[in-house]
Structure to design on (250 residues):
């Protein structure tokens, strides 16, 4: 199916690896013109070269709002604008509530809430002026169902989801959609760093009906669809992609 986004200008945060890379890969496959943001020049350049399709890259610190704004603004300068924004960034450190000091929360909010706000504020005015745009934020299933040992992520990403839903309502009349995708556990370095390969991962997999970690490529395909012409009437959604792990009715 042609998603109708060939030639659209896309910026993807934290796209040197993991789900960000998979999202960029899916967009490139649809003919989008992609600029990826990464924190390390070597990794970002290598990822862009691997993706091909004229993919550009730049270095940006997405752990706070200033770097997040710079990522979008510099990408817009290079491409002449941004039609598609895939919001993504490094997650906060793991830890339980009882072992996480109050001082750690500000950095987590900068990283996983205010950086999200900053990227959207930088990208959406131009989208609204042109009457077309797609924002897809990669958040976490922990927004619906808090993960143990991820207190900072659960807290900050829940705030980001509230912002995204509010933004979606405000800019829908201008032809711009805003959705979030909530990954469960996928085969990424982040998941391996938290759960390892031993008993903790095996126990967690036992709670996933699909019985396995998700494929980054499958996740990227969902992100690409949300950026499509066909998804123009879908906005304000928060979509779990988790192999059936989330089982509540709402």
């Amino acid at each position: 199916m042609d998603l109708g986004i060939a030639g659209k200008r896309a910026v993807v945060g934290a796209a040197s690896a993991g789900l960000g890379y998979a999202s960029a890969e899916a967009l490139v496959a649809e003919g989008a013109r992609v600029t990826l943001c990464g924190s390390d020049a070597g990794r970002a350049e290598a990822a862009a070269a691997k993706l091909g399709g004229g993919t550009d890259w730049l270095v940006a610190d997405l752990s706070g709002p200033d770097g997040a704004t710079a990522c979008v603004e510099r990408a817009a300068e290079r491409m002449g604008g941004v039609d598609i924004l895939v919001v993504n960034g490094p997650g906060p450190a793991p830890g339980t509530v009882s072992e996480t000091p109050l001082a750690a929360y500000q950095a987590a909010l900068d990283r996983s809430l205010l950086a999200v706000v900053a990227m959207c504020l930088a990208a959406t005015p131009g989208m609204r002026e042109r009457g077309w745009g797609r924002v897809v934020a990669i958040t976490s299933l922990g927004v619906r169902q808090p993960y143990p040992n991820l207190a900072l992520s659960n807290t900050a990403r829940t705030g980001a989801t509230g912002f995204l839903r509010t933004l979606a309502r405000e800019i829908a009349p201008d032809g711009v959609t805003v959705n979030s995708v909530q990954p469960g556990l996928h085969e990424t370095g982040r998941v391996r760093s938290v759960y390892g390969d031993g008993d903790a991962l095996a126990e967690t997999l036992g709670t996933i009906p699909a019985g396995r970690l998700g494929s980054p490529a499958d996740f990227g395909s969902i992100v690409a669809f949300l950026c499509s012409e066909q998804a123009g009437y879908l906005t304000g959604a928060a979509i779990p992609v988790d192999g059936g792990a989330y089982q509540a009715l709402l």
